[in-house]
Structure formats: structure tokens, C-alpha cells
Design a protein that fits this description.
The complex is a heterodimer of chains A (261) and B (434). With 261 residues, chain A is mostly helical. Chain A has 8 helices and 4 strands, in the order H-H-H-H-H-E-H-E-E-H-H-E. Chain B is mostly beta strands. Classes of the chains: A mainly alpha (261), B mainly beta (434).
Chain lengths: 261, 434
């Protein structure tokens, strides 16, 4: 039996060998196809799956053109600007800044350096005009909570920051009117130096100007220029609480074609 | 009665207190501001009922007057479409609210009436904001010269608003090329009414007015040498002033009319001399190795600005006539020439070549030395001359290729090219008419 089992006819052996080879070939073929498919897939997907080496949307050479810092030769004749510089916005006028109150008996407080200036307070008020409580908070930041006795380093007549805020505010109003000022070119050179009018206005809580009066400069033409400038400047920034009373009662400005000094 | 007085007193006190409260404290200074032309409404000239057939003259009169006022740079003439001119001419007939709504600050109303060979020109000038009548007068001008009437009216308007005399009836002397020769002409400041002054002599150059406007000093080659002559401003026979060997050029009559500053090269080098009105040498003003030329008198007659190459290239210098003391005025640029003193004595206008090799007009502040540019990027601009009120300049330009004249404000913000044919050089603005 075993001999029978062991003895395989040559034909049968050939068939068995052929089947094995065929199966191995199939396996190899499948492996080859899968490998090729994977390679092809990898090749297809490779460019989109990672960042491209060169982004065509981006400039190959990045440059920043800068004007060389060589100053214009003093001996050259003056040049006119090709276009007039934009007029400064009224609120861009540099405002007087105030130092934080000094406390000589204590060490300098690093927090004091971050306390807001009068200009900061006005800016905050301007942006949060509908919430004037913020202004009080900011003033508190500067001065601390009010006390019955008053602060040892305070002003006996009241809060110095109120005065600073008021002064800064009126400086802004003055800048707004000045930027609206157009002086008639019919004024003579002598008038341009000599004339001085006094412009008085009342400023409502919304910043609108009313009761615009001009104490005459002696030139009706310049008086009209001043009155027109106030009209163009209205509304000015709304007055913050410390300046409201004064603004409502009325304030005045000297007005001069060139300089009031 | 006592009760009434008390009530009146109380009311007065209340009004005073209210006014005082409204005044308030002075919290700042509004200084300076952009100078802008004065908005002026100049509606069309009307005709009296008896002169309705003179519409053409009325239009020409309006056109000349408006052109002058616009050229002055002091006024911004409102577009006629921006207003309706249906109100009256005089006082209460004027509806100032209408003119305020049209953004006018000044108002000029005129009416022509033909009377014989003259026009009567009724002139009404108002300050609109206050409704104040600044001028109400009647000018009488020959009906054959409507343009002069327009210039005269413009002078009145200018004076009413500025308090200064207008220059619209002055004339400008200029050299024009005519058939291969160059001659001195005079013209109105709008380039019209051109009259030839010199005839013959080939080249006639560098005209300069006498202070009374009756004579023009100029250089002519009629004897094949640049000699100095004087001629009546309306023409006539030229009178020789200096026929010395070499250059006799650039003569300028002093403000008092008694002396002439001139460039002579009789001693070999170009130097400045002072002549009397008959041409005799009074004084030699400069004695330097460089070329000294182009004198211009200060309005007080004590100083002369001139050009000298003693610094190595043409620069402006100032000379005290009595002492001979000289100082250099320009230190910028390498080619500064043709100085012209302002009648106010504060500025000297001159031509300078900048780093692009273009000639432009500049002004020099005599007190501070500050130089300001008047022209830029509009061809070559040369040979400035001040108007007699010091508010305007005339100079030549090549901005439209041919050399034309420009009337410009001193700061250059308003420049008007005069429409003219041919090449114009060496303009000289004449004095106020007498």
C-alpha cells in the first residue's frame, strides 16, 4: 500500500508539478499586479498629498523695495511734493500726555506706568461713548477710589485728571476747527499778520456746535471764514463728563490767519 | 414809567449775563488755515433798457472782467450755472439768501448804459455774508474800448475785496519774433491788445519799464553792437543811452526814475555800472573777475540784486548801491539767474536750473534766505517779472512747446498761460497806469 502510495506515475507527478508552478505563478502575478497598482497609486497621489516643491502662486524671489537712506543734497533746489500730503485727522493731533502721580514716600509702582493718560481716557471715551462708566473706571485707574478726605497728593481744588481731560478735549476741538479753517486769499499780507477774531461756541453732549459767535477781527471776510470753519467742524467729538459743563456753557478760541502770538 | 425802566434794566442785565456766559473762557488758538480763493459770484452784465442792442459788448465786458478776476488767483469764480440771477442790482433789491445758498461770499453786479460815445458802467459790489454794499459807483469808459472797461471794473472789484490796487490795466512789455527780427511789444495782462513798440534794428531785446510807464529801456543791435536805448512806451524814435564798446545790456531804471543800472563790458569784463538817464556813468558798481549782469532794483532803490559768476557758476548776489557792500544770496543749485525784486521788497523771483537740467521759477525770501519753487514739471520756465502789486508773476514757459507767457500767483498755485502766437521772451511787467 505504501509502495503503491509512494509510487507516483511520472504523468501524475508532472501534473502535480505543473499545478504547483501554476499556483506559484498566479500568486506572483497577483503580488506583481498589487505592487504595480500600489506603485501607480502612490505615484498618482504623491503630488497632492504633500506640498509642492515650488508654489507657482508665490514669487520665486521675494524683494522689498526700500528707499536708500541717503539724504537729499542740501545744495539741490527745493522740490514740490508730487501730491499734497493728506491733512492730519483732527484726532491724530498729538495730545499732551501726563505723568502718573508721584508717590515719593513709596517705591515706584510698576503698575503706575500702565495707567492711562488723559488722551487714553478721551480715546476710550470716544470709542465707548455710549458707556461713559468706562471713563469713570479709567479715571479710577489713575486716581484710585475717591475718599472723603481726598488724597494726600491730590489737588485741593479737585481732581487734576479732570482738568487734564478737559484741556485735552478742548485741544481736540481746537484742532478740529483749525483743520476746517480756510482763509480767504483776498486778505492782504498786513491783514494776515494783524487780524485776530474770537470764536465762541457752545458744545452739546453729542458734540454739535451751537451759538456760534465771532467777535469781529475788523475784517468781515475773515470773520466769515472763522464762522464757516466752526460750521464745517460741527459736530466735534462729544465732550467727556469732566468737560461737559464747560462745553455746554460755552468756550472761546482766538482765531488768527497766521499766528496769534 | 419807573416800573418799565426796572423791567428794561432787568432784561438788559439778563441778556448781558447770558451773553457773557455764552462767551466763555478762551481755551485755545485757531491759527493759520489753508488759504483758498474767495468764492465770488459775477453774474452777466445787464444792459440798461436804452442799450439792449449792445449785448455783444456786455458779453465781452463780462468775459474780460471775469477772466481778470480768475487770473488773479484771489477769487474762485462761481459757475454761472450755480446761481439764478433774477434779483435786483442795488441794496434792498438783492436777495442775499439766494447768493448765500450759492456759496458766494462776494457778489459783483454790473450794468452798461450807452450814453453818446461812452459807456456808463454801474458797479455794485457786495459782501454776501453781511449783505454789506462795499462799492456802488459808475465808471465812464469809451464805448470803443470795452476791454479796457472790463479791466477797469476788475480793478475796482480787486480793490474792494483786498484793499490793494488791481493790476488789470497794467501792460507787459515782451520781445516777440517777427519775420526774422526781434521786437519789443506791449500787451494787456490777458495777452490781448498787442502793440509793437520798436521798429527796425534787427534784434531788440531785454525791455525794462521806466517807473512812470512812459518809457522802455532796451538793448538793440541796430548798430551791430548790443547798445542801450530808450523809447516811448507807445513807440517812436529810440534814443541811444549807451553805445560803449562791448556789451551795453540789461538796463534797469531805478524806482526814483533817475538812474539806470546796466551791464557794460567796456573794460573787458562784464561789470555793473550806474548811469544817469542821459547815459553818463555815475558809478561803477562791481569790480570782480567774474561776469556780473542782470541787475534788479529793490523798491527803495538802495539795493541791486544781480547775477555773478564769481562763485564759479551763476548765482544771485545783492549789492548796497551806496556802500558797494555785496553778499551772496543763493547757495543751492548751480545756475541761478534773472533776478526780479518784488515791489514789496520781500522776495526775489529768479530762474534756476535744477538737477534735471530744467529751468524753473523760484522765489527767495530776502529776510530768511528761504527758497520756494513756483514751477515744476511743466517745461522750461524762465525770466520772471513781478506785477506792480507784488501778487503775480509773469514768466516764459515751454510747457506747450512754443515759448509763451504765464501769469502766475507768487506761490504758483494758479497759473494761466496766455493764448498767443509766436515766441515770447523777456517779459517785463509795467507799472500802474497814471
Amino acid at each position: 500500500m505504501s509502495a503503491t502510495n509512494l509510487s507516483v506515475s511520472p504523468r501524475a507527478a508532472a501534473i502535480t508539478l505543473g499545478q504547483r508552478q501554476s499556483r506559484l505563478l498566479n500568486i506572483a502575478l497577483v503580488i506583481s499586479v498589487v505592487a504595480h497598482v500600489m506603485l501607480f497609486g502612490a505615484w498618482m497621489l504623491w503630488p497632492t498629498s504633500t506640498k509642492t516643491a515650488v508654489n507657482l502662486d508665490e514669487a520665486i524671489i521675494k524683494t522689498r523695495l526700500v528707499k536708500l537712506g541717503k539724504p537729499r543734497d542740501e545744495k539741490l533746489l527745493p522740490r514740490l511734493p508730487t501730491s499734497p500730503p493728506p491733512p492730519p485727522r483732527p484726532d491724530d493731533k498729538p495730545m499732551p500726555t501726563v505723568e502718573p502721580p508721584k508717590t515719593p514716600d513709596t517705591k515706584p509702582d510698576p503698575k503706575a506706568e500702565t495707567k492711562p493718560s488723559a488722551a487714553d481716557i478721551l480715546d476710550k471715551f470716544k470709542t465707548d461713548a455710549e458707556r461713559p462708566k468706562d471713563l469713570s473706571d479709567l479715571i479710577k485707574d489713575r486716581l484710585g477710589e475717591p475718599t472723603d478726605e481726598g488724597r494726600a497728593d491730590g489737588d485741593k481744588d479737585g481732581s487734576a485728571i479732570d482738568g487734564e481731560v478737559t484741556a485735552s478735549y478742548f485741544a481736540r476741538v481746537q484742532a478740529r476747527i483749525q483743520n476746517s479753517m480756510e482763509v480767504s486769499s483776498v486778505l492782504t499780507d498786513e491783514e494776515r499778520i494783524r487780524l485776530r477774531a474770537v470764536l465762541c461756541v457752545k458744545i452739546a453732549e453729542d458734540g454739535s456746535l451751537s451759538d456760534i459767535t465771532v467777535k469781529t477781527s475788523g475784517s468781515q471776510i475773515y470773520d466769515a471764514d472763522v464762522r464757516a470753519a466752526a460750521g464745517r467742524a460741527s459736530p466735534v467729538p462729544a465732550p467727556p463728563p469732566p468737560a461737559r459743563r464747560q462745553a455746554g456753557e460755552g468756550v472761546c478760541f482766538n482765531a488768527c490767519p497766521k499766528s496769534c502770538r | 414809567m419807573v416800573r418799565f425802566s426796572l423791567v428794561a434794566l432787568f432784561l438788559s442785565a439778563t441778556v448781558f449775563a447770558t451773553t457773557a456766559r455764552a462767551q466763555g473762557p478762551i481755551v485755545g488758538d485757531v491759527e493759520g488755515g489753508e488759504f483758498r480763493a474767495f468764492p465770488l459770484a459775477v453774474p452777466d452784465t445787464r444792459l440798461a433798457p436804452s442799450s439792449q442792442d449792445k449785448k455783444g459788448d456786455a458779453e465781452l465786458f463780462s468775459q474780460v472782467m471775469r477772466g481778470d478776476l480768475d487770473m488773479s488767483g484771489a477769487f474762485q469764480l462761481l459757475d454761472k450755472k450755480s446761481f439764478i440771477d433774477t434779483d435786483g442790482l442795488d441794496g434792498a433789491e438783492v436777495r442775499f439768501e439766494d447768493w448765500r445758498n450759492a456759496a458766494a461770499q462776494g457778489l459783483v453786479k454790473t450794468r452798461l448804459t450807452l450814453q453818446g460815445s461812452d459807456y456808463l458802467i454801474d458797479l455794485f459790489i457786495y459782501e454776501v455774508a453781511s449783505g454789506k454794499q462795499l462799492v456802488k459807483k459808475t465808471l465812464t469808459m469809451p464805448s470803443a474800448d470795452v476791454r479796457s472797461a472790463g479791466h477797469a471794473a476788475a480793478d475796482e472789484v480787486f480793490r474792494a475785496f483786498t484793499g490793494e490796487p488791481g493790476v488789470f490795466r497794467t501792460r507787459i512789455a515782451v520781445v516777440k519774433k517777427v519775420q526774422g527780427e526781434k521786437h519789443v511789444f506791449t500787451m494787456d495782462i490777458d495777452g490781448d491788445n498787442v502793440r509793437q513798440v520798436t521798429k527796425g534794428g534787427g534784434l531788440n531785446l531785454l525791455p525794462a519799464w521806466s517807473p512812470d510807464g512812459r518809457a522802455i529801456v532796451f538793448t538793440s543791435y541796430r548798430y551791430d553792437n548790443p547798445d542801450l536805448f530808450e523809447i516811448g512806451s507807445s513807440g517812436g524814435e529810440p534814443k541811444p543811452l549807451s553805445r560803449r564798446p562791448g556789451l551795453n545790456t540789461g538796463g534797469r531804471v531805478s524806482p526814483d526814475g533817475g538812474r539806470i543800472a546796466v551791464t557794460l563790458s567796456q573794460d573787458g569784463n562784464s561789470e555793473l555800472y550806474l548811469l544817469d538817464r542821459t547815459g553818463n556813468v555815475l558809478k561803477r558798481l562791481t569790480n570782480q573777475w567774474g561776469i556780473d549782469t542782470s541787475p534788479s532794483w529793490s523798491p527803495d532803490g538802495k539795493q541791486v540784486a544781480f547775477v555773478s559768476s564769481r562763485s564759479g557758476h551763476p548765482d544771485l548776489f545783492m549789492l548796497e548801491v551806496d556802500s558797494g557792500a555785496t553778499k551772496r544770496l543763493t547757495f543751492k543749485g548751480t545756475y541761478n539767474q534773472t533776478p526780479a525784486f518784488s515791489p514789496r521788497g520781500t522776495l526775489i523771483a529768479f530762474t534756476a536750473r535744477d538737477e534735471r537740467n530744467v529751468f524753473d521759477i523760484f522765489t527767495l525770501n530776502v529776510a530768511t534766505g528761504e527758497i520756494k519753487r513756483v514751477t515744476q514739471g511743466q517745461g522750461n520756465n524762465e525770466e520772471p517779472s513781478f506785477s506792480p502789486n507784488g501778487r503775480l508773476l509773469v514768466f516764459t514757459t515751454t510747457r506747450n512747446k512754443a515759448k509763451q507767457l504765464v501769469i502766475s500767483t507768487v506761490d504758483g498755485t494758479k497759473q494761466t498761460v496766455l493764448p498767443s502766437l509766436g515766441e515770447h521772451t523777456s517779459p517785463a511787467w509795467g507799472p500802474f497806469p497814471r
